[in-house]
Design brief:
By secondary structure, the protein is an alpha+beta fold. Helix content is 25%, strand content 32%.
Amino acid sequence: MLRNDDDARIQSEIVSAHLRSLQAGHLTDVLSTDQHTVKPWFNASSTSRPPVIDLTAQGFTLIGGRLDYVDARAIAAVVYRRRLHVINLFVAQTASIEHRAAKTETLQGFNIRH
């Protein structure tokens, strides 16, 4: 389990990674609206195997994916768009098997749900 200061640091790194992704040319390493293109790219490019789900019916268009770095390790970022908003879904494996209820927080004006 993460200590509160570790959790706050990692959340800050995630917001920074999101902001970096919005710079020109940094949003995706693989650009595709097809989950059957994005998922195999992650399988070949990283040890992280994030779920790549088609959420078009719910209003979230898949844009693609990329590898990013948070807490000094590579993690997957699955990228969606909803209206004019870019949503980065960061996926990392942890050693913990503890299940906790989802929590939403706001940091620097960005919503973080974990």
